[in-house]
Specification:
By secondary structure, the chain is mainly α. It is built from 1 helix and no strands. The relative contact order is 0.06.
Amino acid sequence: MAMSRTVAMSRTAAMNRTAAMSRTVVMSRTVAMSRTAAMDRTAAMNRTAAISRTERRKQEWDI
């Protein structure tokens, strides 16, 4: 009886550990994905801002 209880306990512990690990992996993946998405967005915004700035400068030169 005591043996089966220990086996069950260790099995639950292992399951909890695996669940926690996979959860952290998923969370870190999501965080990393959202971080890169935010970075891409910022980079794109900066790029468009720089382009519009140079366009404006060109127009000023044309005049």
